[in-house]
């Protein structure tokens, strides 16, 4: 099978690529895992981390906003597209036009190019808890009432994926992700980025500012569980999903205080004391609109599991990304 | 004040135009009714009915999909835009590309042109019960889960109106309308069109086919009440609306059988017997996804009232559109 990942050299794109290159896990039309023949990693940026060293991999750099580029990317041989490419929440809030161009028009381009193949490829669209607004607790029936441009653009993408799927143009699925923690690498412009930074930076010896109150809760999911969830939602039977192709992924709901307590318990006072509270009203106001608790029956029914604890999330970050060692 | 109505020579656009030309009813920045100085009626089509004969009226024919056309239409003097222009439900289902071009890109063009004026004009966006899908009863918290391309495009428009308003680019409001009954004039491509035709055509001496079962219920609102609701939602205080700018308008919920009984009671057997049941599975399946009952507390709080009965709706159609006479 041929798979395209947009945003393919980014954090989740790259990890999904490594995972599906390692062994056949994505199912084909017969529902069984199919061998991966070609994997195209498309991104706006030159790779920061080296792309996977595998003859099946092709890295393509280009602009998702350009329809011709996307048409050339998603050709008649494409079986599956994972669409990660996006301007993140803080970026879409800061640059309104760029957010709509990449997140709305870019997504539309992916759907149109997929439709033009005439073979109804699978499209796995990445959405976010930013589609909600104001509710403390969410479930599968909660209305999408986004309070940011990013959330608006993701909600629009979900609607279009449903409509293109209903028309038989694509076999679309949307994975609505909690905040990913711990994101490896450097901070990005996502308003949620601090939730990773307050764990990641201290473990690597760096001081870091926490912009929100310690009783703020975050719905979080590790990169490892997120990659698994993308494979699960790709492989789900279409009939099980029904007309609403979006699956809200569950997460765990620690407070910032509980996250920092878990860091202290895991790595000691020297590490935990590298976090300094510097309230940022802008970040707090964005995060306050996000839900604390998710009860996603659809995700559970598909066997999609969140992490067990913050401790488990920290441990897997140290093992997978820091070679098992941290700066005490 | 200067007002632009897109779809301004269409059924609702024209009736709203006549109403606001008759006396000052649209409120200005101080909340008081302001004199209308200029009214631009924009439409893709040459007017079928003669445009209002008033020196303040300008009729402009053009393509809402062309950004330059819309930029020229909504200039720096514009205070309010009523955005009616749309490809209706049956049309958007039949021509997927045209539906997205007019209903998505056209709406986006209106928001962008309004934003570029730099003076945050009022935008009143027209939405529809087609944004729902599958629920029998809806209220203000019901999630938007459209089952048609038209409903998808309207739900997307609502999201964008909220986002452009939140950013301070426009003062947006969305009126989510029930099915308009009785639409005057000729049948259009809306899947809901039969609900008007089965009353309108027999009253004018013509036979008509009813495509759905008689126990199908429809949420309906008269053109007169719809025009009033547009004025009400335009004049509502922004603070009362809050971040979700959409107001779901209530209607009454007769079955098709009850509508035809009311026709029989009003006009006699000769008229009612002009309706013949000819089931159309395509129309039935579209209509089956629409809600039967609406409980909109927001609309009620704004004083927006539905009609009293089917009899009242029929009577006002005969009075307003047929000069008080029907073909018995």
Helix-strand category of chain A? alpha/beta
- The helix tally of chain A amounts to 13
Given this structure, which CATH class of the domain at 2-178 and 221-248 in chain A is correct? Alpha Beta
Biggest sheet layout of chain A? 7 strands, parallel
CATH topology annotation of the domain at 2-178 and 221-248 in chain A: Rossmann fold
Report strand order across the widest sheet of chain A.
Answer: 3-2-1-4-5-7-11
Kindly provide the radius of gyration of chain A, computed on alpha-carbon positions and rounded to a whole number of angstroms. 19 Å
Chain-averaged pLDDT of chain A = 95
Largest interface: A-B, 21 and 21 residues
**Regions with little confidence, pLDDT below 50 for 5+ residues of chain A:** none
Distance between the termini of chain A: 45 Å
Based on the structure given, which CATH architecture of the domain at 2-178 and 221-248 in chain A is correct? 3-Layer(aba) Sandwich
Kindly report the name of the CATH homologous superfamily of the domain at 2-178 and 221-248 in chain A: NAD(P)-binding Rossmann-like Domain
User: What is the 3D form of chain A?
Assistant: globular
Order of helices and strands of chain A: EHEEHEHHEEHEEHEEHHEHHEHEHH
Outline:
With 328 residues, chain A is an alpha/beta fold. The first copy, chain A, has 13 helices and 13 strands. In chain A, the strands form 4 sheets. The first copy, chain A, has a 7-stranded parallel beta sheet, with helices on both faces.
């Amino acid at each position: 099978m041929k798979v395209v990942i947009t945003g393919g050299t980014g954090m989740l794109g790259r990890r999904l690529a490594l995972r599906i290159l390692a062994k056949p896990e994505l199912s084909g039309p017969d529902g069984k895992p199919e061998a991966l023949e070609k994997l195209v990693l498309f991104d706006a940026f030159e790779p920061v981390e080296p792309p996977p060293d595998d003859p099946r991999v092709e890295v393509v750099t280009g602009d998702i906003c350009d329809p011709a580029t996307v048409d050339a990317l998603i050709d008649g041989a494409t079986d599956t597209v994972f669409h990660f490419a996006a301007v993140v929440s803080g970026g879409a809030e800061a640059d309104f036009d760029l957010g709509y161009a990449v997140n709305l028009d870019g997504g539309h381009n992916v759907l149109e190019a997929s439709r033009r193949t005439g073979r109804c490829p699978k499209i796995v669209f990445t959405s976010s808890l930013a589609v909600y607004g104001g509710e403390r607790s969410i479930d599968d029936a909660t209305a999408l009432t986004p309070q940011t441009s990013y959330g608006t653009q993701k909600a629009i993408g979900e609607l279009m994926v449903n409509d293109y799927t209903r028309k038989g143009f694509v076999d679309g699925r949307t994975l609505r992700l909690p905040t990913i923690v711990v994101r490896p690498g450097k901070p990005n412009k996502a308003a949620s980025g601090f939730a990773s930074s307050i764990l990641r930076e201290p473990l690597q010896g760096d001081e870091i500012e926490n912009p929100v109150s310690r009783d703020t809760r975050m719905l979080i999911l590790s990169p490892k569980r997120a990659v698994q969830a993308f494979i699960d939602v790709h492989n789900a039977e279409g009939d099980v999903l029904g007309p609403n192709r979006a699956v809200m992924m569950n997460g765990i709901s620690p407070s910032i205080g509980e996250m920092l307590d878990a860091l202290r318990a895991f790595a000691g006072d020297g590490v935990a004391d590298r976090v300094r509270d510097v309230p940022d009203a802008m970040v707090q106001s964005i995060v306050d609109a996000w839900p604390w608790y998710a009860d996603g029956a659809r995700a559970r029914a598909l066997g999609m599991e969140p992490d067990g604890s913050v401790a488990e999330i920290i441990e897997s970050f140290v093992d997978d990304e820091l070679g098992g060692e941290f700066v005490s």
